[in-house]
Amino acid sequence: MNTIPRSVCLVRRVVPVLFLAGCLWLQAAEQGKDQTQAAKDFVDLLSRGDFAGAVQQFDPTMVTALPEAKLKEIWQQLTTGAGSFRKQLRTRNEAMAGYDIVFVTGEFEKAKVDIKVVFNSKRQVAGLFFLPAAEPTAPLPPPAYVRLEAFREKPVTIGQGKWALPGTLSLPLGNGPFAAVVLVHGSGPCDRDETIGPNKPFRDLAQGLASRGIAVLRYEKRTKQYPAECLAMGAQFTVQDETIDDALAAIALLGKTPGIDPKRLFVLGHSLGGMVAPRIGKAAPGIAGLIIMAAGNRGLEDAMADQMEYIASLQPNSSAEENKRMDSFKVEMAKVKALTTNDVNSSTSVLGAPPRYWLDLRGYVPAQAAQGLKCPLLILQGGRDYQATSADLGIWQKTLKGQASVTFKLYPSLNHFFISGEGKCTPAEYEKPGHVAPEVVDDVAKWLMKR
Q1: Is 121 labeled as catalytic in the residue annotation?
Q2: Residues 73, 38 within the same domain
Q3: Cα dihedral sign for 205, 211, 217, 223?
Q4: Greatest CA separation for the chain
Q5: ω into residue 366 within 30 of 0, thus cis?
Q6: Is 354 a domain residue?
Q7: Which of 105, 139, 175, 246 has its CA 20 to 30 A from that of 340?
Q8: 348 in a domain, yes or no?
């Protein structure tokens, strides 16, 4: 679902345009100020359009990497989806690994967004994220289908070296060996639970399947754990780095984990993770099967445009400002369409991603890529999903028609995260607490056990 500048946490669910995520690392600072106030002041600069003032705080590296025009472009991308900035609502503070973090929750016209400002030990702004607003509510209790007494969870590390990722293995009680599933995130800087607002769909899936005797591995996405390092890759960053390499490392870890059956390893990809699941399957031919949830079959830029038009249709009387933002987006989308192989080494971002990212996915149709796979597929779609739609499901069905090893399932009342709702789905729905529908967990578990 969503995009970012140069580091490309490409595509996720930040604000209404779910291909808008913001994994923007900045370095700047206002010495001597309380960090909370400094964060509020910095957000105030952005909201007032004082991008020159913001750039004056950057260190030399960031002045080069993120000049005034680029910072302005990123803010405009955010407001294209979330609407005009209205006011700051609240702040909260965290500390992590030598960094002090301030979350400034901003109220935009169409959504609430957490603007995450990270300070280093020198009281410099070392990071800036735009994330779905986390409402100050009590954590959701586990859904009824989770039996905490049926499994245990333990920390694991996926991969090694500079890209090592913390993860959680949900392991059923007993001797096994158990079938096991790797969960592969959607776009953007996702955590291991694929948290959106108060909801944690990957935790629901992991604990629900573990309650039914299936081991599940989930982990922090690379663009969340190492945003600065991803940014440093510049023009070289692609979906291979964002998603595929770490999924393969997770599969390798499961294959040598005691209690896991190495012949029954599966991959469950959601959204962008589902789109690239056929690529993961081809790179790991020993996979026992793929579960593809809410995966598109169109170019990301086309899906972004469809999402924007859908959201605009929810408010038919568009303002002049909204029309201007849409026109600006169309100009950027045209730039994506115009990219050629001559642009592959350019570090100039387009719609928040380097040209290599877009060119790597050009012409890639997941359903066509899945035709050559020998493993069985389970393809699931929510009927109220406006990010991956019934049109995408239709491409899966038409392309893979007649293949006995492919199973399709449509859930009319479910949204992009397979949470139940009524009427047209809107971005605000993702801020309401809910759980992955029990029938989805049941269907996935039954399909896995039959394999």
Answers
A1: no
A2: yes
A3: positive
A4: 67
A5: no
A6: no
A7: 246
A8: no
Quick one: 160 and 121 in the same domain?
no
Annotated catalytic residue: which of 204, 416, 420, 435?
416
The answer to whether residues 243 and 389 belong to one domain is yes
The verdict on 315 and 281 lying in the same domain is: no
> Do 279 and 414 lie in a common domain?
yes
Instruction: Identify whether 271 is a catalytic site residue.
Output: yes
Q: 98 in a domain, yes or no?
A: yes
- Alpha-carbon dihedral sign for residues 71, 83, 223, 42: positive
Q: Please, which residues have CB within 8 angstroms of residue 302's CB and are 6 or more apart in sequence? A: none
Domain assignment present for 303: no
User: What tokens does 77 get?
Assistant: 């991308």
Catalytic annotation, pick one of 193, 204, 306, 385: 385
Both 114 and 194 in one domain: the answer is no
Residue-number span of the structural domain to which 23 is assigned: 1-136+310-328
The 8 Å CB, 24+ separation contacts for 49-57 are 49/75, 51/75, 54/28, 57/28, 57/29, 57/30, 57/125
Distance CA 382, CA 417 (A): 8
Please indicate, yes or no, whether residues 76 and 203 belong to a single structural domain of this protein.
no
Helix (H, G, I), strand (E, B) or coil at 422: coil
**Where does 35-158 show beta strands of DSSP type E?**
85-96, 99-108, 112-119, 125-132, 151-158
Domain count, the chain: 2
Q: Are residues 184 and 210 in the same domain?
A: yes
Distance between CA atoms of residues 337 and 417, nearest Å? 29
Select which of 271, 306, 349, 392 is catalytic. 271
**CA distances (Å), 378 to each of 134, 226, 443, in order?**
32, 31, 10
Q: What is the pLDDT along the chain (451 residues), one digit of tens a residue?
A: 333 222 333 223 333 333 333 333 222 223 334 788 888 988 898 999 998 987 777 665 566 666 888 878 888 888 888 889 999 999 988 765 555 788 999 999 988 999 888 776 567 777 778 888 876 667 789 999 999 999 999 999 999 999 999 999 999 999 889 999 999 999 888 899 998 888 999 999 999 999 999 999 999 999 888 887 887 888 999 999 999 999 999 999 999 999 999 999 999 999 999 999 999 999 998 999 999 999 999 888 888 888 888 888 887 776 676 777 778 788 888 999 999 999 999 988 887 789 999 999 999 999 999 998 999 999 999 999 999 998 999 999 999 998 889 999 999 999 999 999 999 998 889 888 999 999 999 999 999 999 8
pTM for this prediction: 0.77
CATH number at residue 253: 3.40.50.1820
